[in-house]
Amino acid sequence: MLGNRGPAPGGPDRIRPPALTGPAVRAHSTQDRRRRGTGMDGVSMETDGTTGAMDLMDEAGRMLNTGWGEVSERLTMMAGRLGQGELGAAYLERYQPAATETTAAVEAHCRQPGRLAAVGHQCVDLYRTADQRIAGTFTSVDPAAPTAAPPADATLA
Question: How far apart are CA 130 and CA 136, in angstroms?
């Protein structure tokens, strides 16, 4: 879990990502909803809290990308010193493929928080749209209007 407690690994000058805890991202159980009086069956999204969590995830992803960019630059600079002499050349042959593969994997993983946050924001938008659409159907029903009786020959399947 990310947090702001104490210095980051690598020294106090490193930036700590924001905390991903607290009421904005706290999961609520059905019991919690009932205690708060919503009476929901657990199938609802707290859109403000979810939006806040996605914003934090996106921010953490940006910080991850920034930090990796700094590390990647240093690794690239130091890699230029490798491969000097006969032993160095033999080491470089084994180092380079692993370094390239690791770099590609880290870069792919650094993109994930931003992608997940974007999908989370889309989910919130879809949820709000669906919620508004279904609410519209409830407001268009006139509870005082008589209900049509089913035809006499109707059967239940």
Answer: 10
